[in-house]
C-alpha cells in the first residue's frame, strides 16, 4: 500500500508536466495549451487575516484536492474560431462535482471521451435502470469558447479533483 501511495504522489507531480490536453480550433496549430496543478494553502497576511492562495502542487497524498488550470493561448496573428479544449480527469483522481469553470466557455463532460453533455444529462444504465452519472464516472471535461480567441489572448478552464 505504501508503494502504491508513493506512486500516486509522484504521478501527480508528473501530471502537471505532461498532461494529455487537446485543443482544437479552425486555425490549426495556433493554440498553445498549458496545464498547471495547484493546491490551496492557508496564509495569514500582515493584518492577521487568514486567506487561501494557490501554490504549485508538488507532492500530494491521497485525499488531497488539486486545482487544475488549463490555459489556451492564441499564438497566431489572426483570431482563432471554434476553440475547444478537451481535458481528461487525471488517472487515480475523482472530479469534484460542479468544480469545472471556464469564463466565456460552455463546459461539458464525458464518460468515454466521445459523447459530451452537461453533467446532469449524462446517464448510466445500472441493473436495467437509468441513473445520473456520478462525479467519479466523469472522465473528461470540454470547454468550448463562445467567441473567437484573439491573437495573443488567453482563455482558461479550471476544475478540482481529489487524489484517490
Please explain how this structure is put together:
The protein is mainly β and about 160 residues long. It has a single domain (about 1-164), classed as Mu homology domain, subdomain B (Immunoglobulin-like). About 10% of the residues lie in helices and about 45% in strands. It is built from one helix and eleven strands; from the N terminus they run αβββββββββββ. β8 and β9 form a beta hairpin.
Major sheet: order of its strands?
3-2-4-11-6
CATH architecture: Sandwich
Structural class: mainly beta
Q: Portion of residues in helices?
A: under 10%
Structural domain count? 1
Percent range for β-strand residues: 35-45%
Order of helices and strands: HEEEEEEEEEEE
Number of strands: 11
Count of helical stretches: 1
Radius of gyration: 17 Å
Q: What's the story with the biggest beta sheet? A: 5 strands, antiparallel
List keywords for this structure.
164 residues; mainly beta; Immunoglobulin-like; five-stranded antiparallel β-sheet; four-stranded antiparallel β-sheet; 1 helix; flat; disordered N terminus
Amino acid at each position: 500500500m505504501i508503494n502504491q501511495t508513493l506512486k500516486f504522489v509522484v504521478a501527480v507531480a508528473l501530471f502537471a508536466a505532461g498532461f494529455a490536453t487537446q485543443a482544437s480550433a479552425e486555425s490549426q496549430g495556433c493554440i498553445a495549451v498549458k496545464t498547471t496543478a495547484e493546491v490551496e494553502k492557508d496564509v495569514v497576511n500582515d493584518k492577521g487575516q487568514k486567506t487561501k492562495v494557490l501554490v504549485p502542487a508538488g507532492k500530494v497524498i491521497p485525499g488531497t484536492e488539486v486545482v487544475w488550470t488549463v490555459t489556451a493561448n492564441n499564438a497566431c496573428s489572426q483570431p482563432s474560431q471554434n476553440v475547444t479544449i478537451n481535458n481528461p480527469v487525471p488517472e487515480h483522481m475523482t472530479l469534484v462535482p460542479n468544480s469545472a469553470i471556464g469564463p466565456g466557455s460552455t463546459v461539458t463532460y464525458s464518460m468515454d471521451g466521445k459523447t459530451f453533455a452537461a453533467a446532469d444529462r449524462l446517464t448510466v444504465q445500472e441493473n436495467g435502470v437509468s441513473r445520473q452519472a456520478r462525479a467519479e464516472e466523469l472522465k473528461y471535461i470540454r470547454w468550448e469558447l463562445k467567441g473567437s480567441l484573439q491573437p495573443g489572448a488567453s482563455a482558461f478552464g479550471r476544475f478540482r479533483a481529489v487524489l484517490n
